[in-house]
UniProtKB/TrEMBL annotation:
Peptidase S54 rhomboid domain residues: 86-223
Identification of the protein by name: RHOMBOID-like protein
Entry's localization field: Membrane
Signal peptide feature range: none
Keyword terms of this UniProt record: Hydrolase, Membrane, Protease, Serine protease, Transmembrane, Transmembrane helix
GO cellular component, one term: membrane
EC number: 3.4.21.105
TM regions (residue ranges): 34-53, 95-116, 128-146, 152-173, 180-199, 205-223, 250-272
Function: Serine protease involved in intramembrane proteolysis.
Alphabetical list of PANTHER family matching this protein: RHOMBOID-LIKE PROTEIN 3 (PTHR22936:SF86), RHOMBOID-RELATED (PTHR22936)
Membrane topology: Multi-pass membrane protein
Amino acid sequence: MAGEDLESRGEKSRGSYSNSSFAIEERETHWTSWLIPMFVVANVAVFVVAMYVNNCPKNNSGSKGKCVARLKKLGALERTKMVHEHQEWRLITCMWLHAGLIHLLVNMLGLIFIGIRLEQQFGFIRIGIIYLLSGFGGSILSSLFIKNSVSVGASGALFGLLGAMLSELITNWTIYSNKAAALLTLVVVLVINLGIGILPRVDNFAHIGGFLTGFLLGFVLLPRPRFGWMEHRNLPADVRVRSKYKAYQYVLWVVSLVLLVAGFTVGLVMLFRGANANDHCHWCHYLSCVPTDKWKCDET
């Protein structure tokens, strides 16, 4: 019918998806996940090499052991090396190293359960970008706050995927039928994992930095077209078609992109000028470790 609104057509047919957690058009592409499994294999391979080269089960002796020294050589996040010796590559290499078998298993299980599902829905390019940039963002924030410790692990990248899941839910809010349940589940998972980060020897700044990066990237890379958009190419030329995305999605896209660019720029400038973020936020160290009568926190 001439002049008919495409959105109204979508509303009429939306009821057929009522039993699904969210409405996905039949023609939407579902990808085969291969990049996330490759990331898992790469992390395991690097861990095996690191353990074998230094015979870690025999030689490890806490934070001063040979295994920690080997991790430093392999590319662990170490602020002094980056600021004074210009080893910026540590911002990337640290996310492929792990401090122990349990550390590796927890991260890889989380990556499998979260990453594969996201890659199947959004493809390897977008999820790969979110994973890598989130790990990078987590490394930057960690380096700004932690001065005297080394940090390794894919946790920042993993938290970035969790952040992207949350922003994907928000930006695609109208297609979800079980909004409250999905949001509550994500928030509970995030709170529990960030809560674990206040324990000693856990780099919660990497978690927070990765989460914030992934959260903003989700608004930029994961918006879904409005319902019915995929059908517009099969409609008569005189049928009025609305824009691909809704207005609030465009607003979130612009704001998130600006915040991402500003955040990375300010963070890198502060880091390579040797700034200590604790001087500008005197309480922020509690975000990574809260001292109790059961444990003490290392000085950052």
